[in-house]
Each structure stands twice: as C-alpha cells, then as structure tokens.
Design brief:
By secondary structure, this protein is mainly α. Among the domains are: 26-158, Helix Hairpins (Orthogonal Bundle), CATH 1.10.287.1700; 295-365, Muramoyl-pentapeptide Carboxypeptidase, domain 1, CATH 1.10.101. Helix content is 73%, strand content 0%. It contains 10 helices and no strands. The chain starts with a helix and ends in a 12-residue tail after the last helix.
Length: 382
C-alpha cells in the first residue's frame, strides 16, 4: 500500500541529508587544498629560479673580474713592449732594419691584448644576459606570490629595465688607440733600408710614443690602476705638465697660464715647437721634442743672461761715476750692487727698490740735465 507524504518524511530519512552537505564541504576543502598546494609549488619553483639566476649573475661577474685582470696584465706587457720599441733609435748602433725585427716582436703582445679585450667584451655580454634572466625570474616570483595569496600584485609583474654592463673606457680613448696603432703601422711601412737613420728615428719614435701614451690613457680608463696608483699618476702628470709649460713659456711657445693641465693651449705650444724644430707634429713630447725644447730654453736663457750682464755692467759704471760703487765692473749682479743702487736711488729722491725702474731712470736724466757743464774760470780784471 502506498505511503502518504507524511509517512515518506520520516525522521530517519531527514537524518541522512546532512551527510550530503558534509561531503560537499569536504570536496571543496580538498579542492582548495589542492589549489593551495599548487600555488605553493609555483612560488617554490619561482624562488628556485631566482636563486639559480642570482648564482649565474655572481658567476658572470666573477668571470668579468677575471677577464679585466687578464686584460690589465696583457696591456701592461704590451705597453712595456711599445716603450722598448720606441727607444730602439736611442741605441747609436741601431739601424732601420731593427724596426722590422721589433715590429715582429710587437705582434704577439698585441694579439694577446686584443684577445684579452675581446674576452672582456664577451664577459660583459654574458653578465648582461645573466642580469636579464635574474630580472625576469624576480618578476615571475612576484607574480607567483601574488597568485598564491589570492591578491593581485601591487605592480604589474613586468621585467624592469636594466642598465647594460659595458666597459668603462670612453669611446674617444679607444679611437685614439686605434688611430695611433694605424699611425705606427704606417710609419713602420714607410721606413725602408734606404731611409736615413735620422729621418727614421724622428718619424718612428714620435709614432711609437703617441701609441704608448694612448695605451697608457686606456690602461688608466680601464681601471687597471689602484686608487693610490691613480692618485700618484695624476700628481705626476700634473707636475710634469707644469714643468713643461714653464719651459715652453721660457722658450716663447706658450702664452697661457701655468696650471699643470695638458690642454689645447699646451698641445698647440708643443706643435709650434715641433714645427720650429722641423719635427713630426704630434702635440706630444717625445725625446726628439724634449731635446728641441731644451735647446730652445738654453738659447733663450743664454740670451737673457747676456742681457743681464750688459745691464749689470751699465749700472756698475754709472754708480762708480756717481761715487756709489767701489767694486769691480764685471757684469755680475750681486747683493752688494743692489744695496749700492738703493743708496743711489735715495740720493735721487726716488723709492729705493734696488731695480733700475722708470722712476730711477727719469730722476737720473733730470740730474744729468741739471748738472752745469765745465767752463773756464774768469780771468781777473785788469
């Protein structure tokens, strides 16, 4: 007999319904746990990627440091070889044939330095790639952490822009090295067995010196010097340039301030000196230019010394006639002569400076003009 609606809804059937809801809640919990586990796994994987990328960056940086050290060692050896190369004509027994021999000796250190320089560039590229991978890994980690927390990331998980790692050497420094290399090569090729030794020496040593200077600049710009070495080198260059400017000024080639800066005015003065001496015009002071400068200074100072002797003789003569000088007339300006001149200036009524200045000359001219000329004594009247 069929049961009624009331009979079908017995307490026993009503008690079974809560078990269905419990199963649903449990299923949701299991699913949530599974999702949470998956998110946690994503964060762990992203973190592992960051750790691995950071290790790659550290390794790339260490490789770059090693490449830089090797480049500094190779370039130092090359600079030393260039220095020897540029001095071959300092040996009186050297011949133009030695240029070819020394040129071959330069090939190996040049190739070693070029290889080391390329290794530095490759190391910079590797470091850039490693840094890019690290940036992408860090962005992925931020996204994974945001997904695991169920909250949107505060900023878009995009890869930040990076400043590429590149050599610190200015392009102008590299260009000067390339030009100097080409100039030395051209100078070497232009020297034959028939080239006069004097001409070969002037042309070749100036080109070698220019190359050495350009490499020294690159050596410094590449960070191959310690801070202390850099400070010492800067001071040495300043002191050298100051002395050079003084000599150029004495010789009449330099009109600027003596400031220890090897700037355009100094370069121009050196070029004028080289033109005057018939040397290759480089603006750099090689040994031939240094010798020409020494000669120019000697000529000027010798002339100045002669002029000083003439002036001293004139002053000694004048003071002796005036009764203020009892020493010899020998053209030597001594402290005693200065003291005598001051006494004479006092007598003339001018400031006692010890120098034959305009005031002294003017007072002396007036004194001489006012002095009565000698005349015969009048005869007694008869």
């Amino acid at each position: 007999m069929p049961r009624t609606r009331a009979e079908r809804s017995t307490p026993s059937t009503r008690l079974r319904r809560p078990w269905g809801f419990a199963a649903l809640i449990a299923a949701v919990a299991i699913f949530a746990a599974a999702c949470t586990g998956a998110s946690a796994g994503g964060v762990e994987a992203a973190q592992a990627r960051v750790t691995e990328a950071q290790q790659a960056v550290d390794q790339a940086q260490a490789a770059l440091d090693k490449a830089n050290t090797e480049f500094c060692a190779q370039s130092k050896g090359y600079i030393t070889a260039i220095d020897r190369y540029g001095k071959i004509f300092g040996d009186t027994a050297a011949t133009v044939g030695d240029v070819k021999t020394m040129g071959a000796d330069l090939a190996q250190p040049r190739e070693g330095t070029s290889s080391a320089a390329q290794a530095v560039l490759d190391a910079h590229d590797a470091l850039n790639k490693a840094n890019q991978e690290l940036a992408e890994a860090q962005a992925a980690l931020v996204a994974a952490q945001a997904s695991a927390s169920g909250k949107p990331a505060k900023t878009p998980a995009s890869t930040p822009s990076l400043t590429p790692s590149s050599p610190e050497v200015p392009t102008a420094t590299v260009d000067r090295v390339k030009k100097a290399e080409a100039d030395l090569q051209a100078a070497s090729e232009g020297i034959t067995d028939q080239t006069p030794v004097t001409q070969a020496a002037e042309t070749f040593t100036s080109a070698a010196f220019a190359l050495e200077v350009s490499w020294l600049n690159l050596f410094a710009d590449a960070g191959c010097l310690t801070d202390e070495q850099s400070k010492e080198a800067t001071a040495a260059v300043r002191d050298y340039t100051t002395a050079l400017q003084k000599d150029l000024k004495t010789a009449g080639f330099y009109k600027g301030d003596v400031d220890g800066v090897y700037g355009p005015d100094t370069v121009k003065a050196v070029e004028e000196l080289q033109k005057d001496a018939g040397l290759p015009v480089t603006g750099l002071v090689d040994r031939a230019t240094s010798a020409a400068l020494d000669q120019a200074v000697a000529d000027k100072t010798g002339s100045a010394a002669a002029q000083d002797a003439i002036e001293a003789t004139a002053v000694q003569t004048t003071l002796k006639l005036a009764g203020y000088w009892t020493g010899p007339i020998d053209g030597q300006w001594t402290p005693e002569l200065t003291a005598a001149l001051k006494e004479f200036q006092k007598a003339l009524g001018v400031k006692p400076t010890g120098v034959v200045d305009a005031a002294t000359l003017g007072a002396l001219e007036k004194k001489l003009a006012g002095q009565p000329s000698a005349s015969p004594s009048p005869s007694p009247s008869s």
